[in-house]
# Entry
Amino acid sequence: MPLPFLIGGAIVAIGGLVGAAAKSVNRDYEEELVWINRKIRSLAEETNRNYNATQQDVKSKLDNWIFIKKEAHTHLLPRFVDSFGNLKQVDYDTNEVLTSDIVKDIKQTNLKYKMNHKDGDVGTESEAALKGAILGIVGGGAFLLGSVIKNVKLQYAIEEAEANLAKMKLEAEKVKTVEMKLRHLGKRAGELTSVTQVLSDLFKLALHQLECNIATYGTNYSQYDLVTRKQVHMVAELAKTVKTVVSTELLNDSWEPNPKLATIIRTSREAVEKFSHGG
# Structure
C-alpha cells in the first residue's frame, strides 16, 4: 500500500481516537456537572424540608401559648377583678400579696393586652414571633439557592457549580442556626404553655372558691375566718402569678428569645408545686 495512504489512514485513525477521547472527557465533565447539580438541589430540598418542618412545629407551640394567654387575659383575670373587686374592708397592710393595687394592676394588664391584640386573631402574634426569629436569614433562606449550572463550557461550568455548592453549604449552615433559634423558642413556648395551663386550672378552682365564699359569707373581708382569708390570699397570689406569666414576651426587642423566660418558668413551676399542695 502506498505510503501516503498509510499516513492518511493513520491520521484518520488518530483523529478518530482524539474525537473519541474528547467525547469521553466531555461525558466525564457532564457526569460530574450533573452530580454536583444534584448535590446542590438535594441540599436545597433537604434544607427547605427541615426548615419548614421546624417552622410548623414551632408555630403550633406558639399558637397554643397565644391561646392560653388570650383565655387568661379575656376570661380568668377579668373574672378575678370582678369578684375580688367586690371585697370590702380588706386588710392590705398585713399581707404582701394583698396590695391595694392588685386589681388596678391586673386591669391595666388586660387593657394593654386588648389594645395590642385583635379579638379572635390567634395567628397574628404567632406569625410575628416567627418573623422575628427568622430575620437573620439572608435573602429569604438558603433553600432558595438550588439553581443548576448549565449552558456554559463544561470545564468552567464545573468550577462554577462547585463554587455554588460551597456557597449552598454555607447558607444551609445559616439556616440550621436559625432552626436552633426556632426550636429554642418553641421549647420555651411549650414550657410556658404547660405550666400556665396547670396554673390556670388551679386559678379556676381558687376563683370558684372565692365566688362561693362571697355568696356564703358576703363581701366583708374583715368578717372572714382564717381559713376563708387564706383562700382569698391564695386566689390573689395565683392571680398575680398568672398575670406575670401571661404578660411575659417570648422575644426581646432584638427578636431573640427573652432571657427572663427561664426564671419565669422556674418560679411558675414553684407556684404550681406550692398551690397543688394547698398553698
Observations:
- The chain is about 75% helix and 0% strand.
- Residues 27 and 33 are 10 Å apart (CA to CA).
- The first helix runs from residue 3 to 84.
- The mean pLDDT is 77.
